[in-house]
Amino acid sequence: MRRVVITGIGAVCPHGLTSGDLWKGLTEMRSAIAPLSAFDPVAFPSRIAGQVPAFKTMDYVPKSYRKATKIMARDIELAVLAADGAVRDAHLVTRGVMETFGGKKPDESWFEVDSRRIGCNIGAGLICADLNELAAAMAPAKGDDGRLSLQKWGKSDDPTKPSGMDLLTPLWLLKYLPNMLACHVSIIHDTQGPSNTITCQQASAGLALAEACRTIQRGHADIALVGGCESMVHPMGLMRWTLLNRLTTQGNQHPEMACRPMDQAASGTVIAEGGSVLIIEELQHALARGGKIYAEVAGLGASSSARGIAGPDPAGEAMAVAIQKSMKDAGTNPAEVQMVIPSGYAIASHDRAEASAINHVFGSLRPQVVAIRGGLGDAGAGAQALDLAAAAMALHHQTVPGAVNCTNPIGGLHVPQQTHTAALQHVLVSTGSIAGQNSAVVLRRYA
Amino acid sequence: MRNRVVITGIGWVTPLGRTIDEVWAKLLAGESGIAPTTLFDARFFPTQFAAEVKNYQLPENLRSSGKHEEISRATGFALDAAHQAWRMAGLPMPGSKESSTVDPYSVAVYMGTGDAALDFDNFTQAALGSWNQEARGMNMAQWGQRALHSFNALREIEQEPAMPISHLSMEFDARGPAINCLTACAASTQALGEAAELIRRGDAEVIISGGAHSMIHPFGVTGFNRLTALSTFNENPKRSCRPFDATRSGFVIGEGAGVLILESLSHAQARGAKILAEVVGYGSSADAYRVTDQHPEGRGAIVAIESALRDAEMQTTDIDYINAHGTGTKENDSTETFAIKGVFKEHAKQVPISSIKSMMGHLIAAAGAVEAITCVLCIRDQIIPPTANYSVPDPECDLDYVPNHARKIKVDVAMSNSFGFGGQNDTLILRKFR
Q1: B27-54: string of b/e by CB count within 10 Å (b at 16+)?
Q2: Looking at the whole model, is its pTM more than 0.90?
């Protein structure tokens, strides 16, 4: 059986633009949640967000591909950054990286990849069109009733002037297709192996990792770029989550304390953006090229709560099944898992169901439970990718980051209040999406 | 040793109808489901026709009725098609007396579906009512107020691409893995291939798999019209989609769903299910070439077809029929032909190839699923559907496209290709069960 290890991590999140920034933010137990500045949220009851610091996408793509940055929605840009970070962290020389090196790799620690043997599986969310871009095109086609006139939108009265739709760039649709994250990344890095885009909201990245691992185990690839990225920091995203009552409205004064996962005072989640791309690699391949190994992907499990947007059943039964499957797949048991990263939205009903699932599986063993949304917010399809990055770094550094904003844990959970070193054999990442898809991943220390 | 994967149920909702045999008869007769657009006023769009599912109503016999309010068209199509497939497979409905014979955690869902349409009236009213033309920017305070007042929470969340699988899991109490992939026009072929892999390694016994999609809405058609990918042959919609023909001028947007029940052979045999066909090969690749164009030499398509053949342990001479991606765009059909010739070499001219998109349009994320169902029916009935509207040969497309008339042939093995915008390529191979 081919084993799969993690050999590179790229992360983009409110703590910064690199996996190092993520780890530093986590271990320093900081919250990066702040007043929302991407647009004016004054009309909304929740006006805070976890936003990624400023960056120029141009800096992360080879010169020959810079033109394409014009057709990248925010979600795509995040994936391009995360992939660049991951590939460089793993010391892989892909087409894109080679161009920035001027055609010659810096030293022997860099490995020139075989493009046909690399896959790409990046989870994505629903990407909303940019409101200003679309409204600017719609404005000349406004009908007398205040709606868009489809007549003016489709065809101009004056043949010398463009119609409404003509004002949109010809490639407009491609900015917003969810598979464009993987598409741009695959072009930049020339990954010609199996490529997929899983859209299961917050559980996307774990399911993408599982699928890509199986691809490598079957022998269809040796390396894959996997993860997920999303920006929920969009007026439509904020509107949707406000109407669904998922957001805390108590954090506008003290944003850094707003998101309280698995805490008795949890009052709702916070929208955020970000994500991560991991390099996963067949073990012998990684060893042969002298790659740095963060952790082994040991076990994978998935299930569905089958209750629609009602979310998990209160007992967390389906989530517990996914966790148990992942442990069985890893050939391990609860006693050998020292740390759990749950989704921990800070949505009380969801958190309680997750706590029940953890307690059901672990009983009195009480592993350390750290929900990283406390300092980052919910980055949708990027969230579990950040959880996976955190888990891999925890195993690599043998360190448990302390929890942010969880001083009174629910369900008797063991939530570390300080960052500390620990002997970690296994870390479990367990996520339940808002629409009921569950993904559990067990990572194992590689030593 | 991997598990064998068989198909025990099929169901679809298409522009040609909503039952397996009704649609199949029309495909064999070369009938068209393409007509002037009715779902919105498209009279002033460059393309004024589409392949719509006519007079669609959600079936009344849904189990968790009341939990499907405000669902998108695609979710409705998916539920309908899945009910047909589930019934054909003879699986018990959850809550029925026999339901204890199926472990809910062994039933998975893997679909290829896309996002649903924006709430057009509320979206355009909120945006236009808050737009400041002088500043060329949105007054966000105003937009926020309007949006919170007018948008419907459920209708908004139902636009998420994960919602069709969420409803399917609930309806059939499927508690195994629930996955949706969205690789544009390749999505449901990829879903079926990856679903088969889940069964092969024992992660599920039964999978509800396929695709569902509708992009026949103002912004969907706008997007494809701007890309100039759609046919604008408004004078005769029924003749608008002409795959492999020298006069082809673009694809025709369609909508619908196709659902197949995949099952491990041992599970199907243990319950005495009737087996329709076997999934024997799956191949997947990325072009990694351009956002807008396929690789001109079909590099990725060739890899997908070759790896599906290898997966099935078959030679090109084993393939009796190819159900083409065949969209009717200049680029796709010549590239696909090039790729088939690249893999099949001399034998390419002997393999009949047809595109049902000539009749039911391009169902986007759902296209691969209805095409896989078509392959199942070819194997069942030993007959293949034609490529309709074929009249002028193109020197770049010089293979046997089964022009205009269905053909009775031996079909033991059928191959189906799907290629997506963004460069994902997927190929499935189905075989008569024996």
Answers
A1: bbebbbbbeebebbebebbbbbbbbbbe
A2: yes
